[in-house]
Amino acid sequence: MPSFTPRQFLLLVLLTLAWGLNWPVMKLGVADYPPLAFRAISIWLGVPVLGLALAWMKVPFHVPRRAWPELVWLGATNMFIWHACIILAVKALSGGRAAILGYTMPVFSAVIGALLFSAVLTRRSWVGVGACAVGVGLLLWHELTDLAGRPGYVALALVAAATWALGTQLLRHSRIGLPTLTLSFWMTAMTAVVMTVLSLLFERGPWRWPGPVTWGSIAYNAVLIFGFAHAAWFYLARGLPPVASTLSVMFIPVLGVFSGAVWLGEVVHWQDWVAVALMMVAIASVLWPSRSAAKA
């Protein structure tokens, strides 16, 4: 298992903080606002932020015509389905634990990699996947009664996780010879269009101006999630093996649970603390240098 470079590790820490804290932020943002419209506005405001980053870093915007079909497919698997399904699940499911279902993604990624891409997982990788699965189960311990009454939204979150896992694998194996920021910009722009169309189709009614809390959540998502986090994630996903990139973000749902406890008043149980330890095992399975790497 390759070790992380200092840049990758720094991006991972910042990404974990931004995404982990965003779960209660999203919950507050959609509490009294249509979720698809919330997502569409956030992305539209995030696109210029990402565009300015490309211009400042002199990264090209141009995408060759032959690359567009694959780029659209990457956008669908990495962003379209994920954002539509998960924001609806956040609206319906309880607090920070909506993140837990979304972050079953590493388990799906390991299975998809083995079945579709002939990935060979090391023993340590399987330990990380197992720790991840058990940790997710423990974090859901006190949610099972509520989730059983909302099977449709549970299914949406799981579909989002499985599709994102497929997208991560496809991104890793992509042959598009373009900078990651270019891919991120156009996938984000396409997702803004998709979310807008879905909102217009399914959230009919008089449009209303978001309130102060919703605007704060939108600003957080525009700058930190769509202006930074997605680009950072795509950079990690393209530069690391899928198991390493997916398991390395497993502290995000833990942060989502505990930040939800602080901001939304949710109770933290002993199962949550055990899950923290298991998530640390999952992270260590990909971050801790192997013996061969240490000897090298």
From TrEMBL:
Pfam families: EamA. Residues 10-140, 154-287 form the EamA domain. Keywords: Cell membrane, Membrane, Transmembrane, Transmembrane helix. It comes from Variovorax paradoxus (strain S110). This is EamA domain-containing protein. It comes from the Bacteria. The keyword ATP-binding does not apply. The keyword Transmembrane helix applies. SUPFAM superfamilies: Multidrug resistance efflux transporter EmrE. The chain crosses the membrane at residues 36-59, 71-94, 100-118, 125-141, 153-171, 183-202, 214-236, 243-264, 270-288. GO terms for cellular component: plasma membrane.
